[in-house]
From TrEMBL:
It comes from the Eukaryota. PANTHER family: ENDOPLASMIC RETICULUM-GOLGI INTERMEDIATE COMPARTMENT PROTEIN, ENDOPLASMIC RETICULUM-GOLGI INTERMEDIATE COMPARTMENT PROTEIN 2. Belongs to the ERGIC family. This is Endoplasmic reticulum-Golgi intermediate compartment protein. Signal peptide: none annotated. It is found in: Endoplasmic reticulum membrane; Endoplasmic reticulum-Golgi intermediate compartment membrane; Golgi apparatus membrane. The chain crosses the membrane at residues 35-55. Residues 163-325 form the Endoplasmic reticulum vesicle transporter C-terminal domain.
Length: 377
């Protein structure tokens, strides 16, 4: 009984065999078939290699959601050089919520404003990248991918003199605020704050400045912020520079790095302060920032291994059957044109069209030319 069912099962499985063995004597090879097979192999190899590159490649996926994190602090990284002596300028941050001044994390370092040729080269390379970024957002992906591999953004140190480099980082609340760099050191008093500017002569005012780095959130080596490399030279003593920044919290998840950072967009404006002409204000550099309520998650995606394998199978099987069908079709057309219509002979076909023996028998007159052309196929 048991034996019987096993035998039945075996025969059932045998019936299901999709790969029946064909005896060697029934198999015939032809030159055209060989050529087509060769082409198929080359195509498969080529496509498989290309597919492998697609598999190795990664792409960035952007997702947006409402930023629910409103309690954490926002870190601002600053590296700005102003063409004034350090004792004459002061930087501080006012935020909307508490009018609180948080500038203790900033350092003042006397430097020279002019760049060395080497630094100038670095600066122009940076500006070039900035211009490309402005043109196409896609470049951002390239930067996320390549620059993250550890290209330093920090410019080489400068020898000291008449300008002031203000650098460091401060933590502020996640509300709109205003970073300003103006004449005089800031002083704090209960009603607000002021800058002592009494002893600074008006014609030493020079708010020409260069932003080497300005970013929000964790500092990630290699990521270039929109304002990095900006240089503004003015020939007026009373110039006001304003930058309006919208900060977008960005969660970065790439293979190399995963971090909470902040991208930002910026618009800028500058104007001459001239009270007589009705252009009021305070000369200096002002950076107004606000945070966006949307958060962006950027994650690096790549094809899963399973999908890659399935696609490989698809390529191999697809190319094989497609070239097989094309070969058959071409052979059939060739037979029809070359042998049937020309000679006006009709004979029912008993064998496959790519059968060389058959075609030679089908066109007895043009055997030589037929088989020659078929070889070229
Ligand atoms: C400010 O400094 C820059 C760089 O040293 C210089 O080119 C510019 O003429 C100066 N402007 C004024 C008003 O002194």
């Amino acid at each position: 009984m048991r034996r019987l069912t096993r035998g039945k099962a075996l025969s059932l499985v045998r019936e299901l065999d999709a790969f029946p063995k064909v005896s060697d004597s029934y198999v015939e090879t032809s030159a055209s078939g060989g050529t087509v097979s060769l082409i198929a192999f080359v195509a498969i190899a080529l496509l498989a290699v290309l597919e492998f590159f697609v598999y190795r490649d990664t792409w960035m996926k952007y997702e947006y959601e409402v930023d629910k994190d409103f309690s954490s602090k926002l870190r601002i990284n600053i590296d700005i050089t102003v063409a004034m002596k350090c004792q004459h300028v002061g930087a501080d941050i006012l935020d909307l919520a508490e009018t609180m001044i948080t500038s203790s994390g900033l350092h003042y370092e006397p430097v020279i404003f002019e760049l060395t040729p080497q630094q100038r080269l670095w600066q122009s390379a940076l500006l070039l990248i900035q211009n490309r970024l402005r043109e196409e957002h896609a470049a951002q992906e390239v930067l996320y991918k390549t620059l993250l591999k550890g290209r330093p953004t920090a410019p080489p140190p400068r020898s000291p003199l008449g300008a002031c480099r203000i650098h460091g980082h401060v933590h502020v609340n996640k509300v709109a605020g205003n970073l300003h760099i103006t004449v005089g050191k800031p002083i704090h008093h209960p009603q607000g704050h002021a800058h002592i500017a009494a002893f600074v002569s008006h014609n030493t005012y020079n708010f020409s400045h260069r932003i080497d780095h300005l970013s929000f959130g964790e500092e990630i080596p290699g990521v270039i912020s929109p304002l990095d490399g900006t240089e503004k030279i003015t020939f007026n003593n009373n110039q006001m520079f304003q930058y309006f920044i919208t900060v977008v919290p960005t969660r970065l998840n790439t293979r190399k790095i995963s971090a909470d950072t902040h991208q930002f967009s910026v618009t800028e404006r500058e104007r001459l302060i001239n009270h007589a002409a009705g252009s009021h204000g305070v000369s200096g550099v002002f950076v107004k920032y606000d945070t966006s309520s949307l958060m962006v998650t950027v994650s690096e995606q790549h094809m899963p291994l399973g999908q890659f394998l399935v696609r490989l199978c698809g390529i191999v099987g697809g190319v094989f059957s497609t070239t097989g069908m094309l070969h058959g079709l071409l052979g059939f057309c060739f037979d029809a044109i070359c042998c049937r219509f020309k000679l006006g002979i009709y004979r029912p076909r008993e064998e496959s069209p790519d059968d060389a023996a058959h075609s030679s028998s089908a066109c007895p007159v043009q055997t030589a030319s037929c088989s020659k052309d078929r070889t070229l196929l």
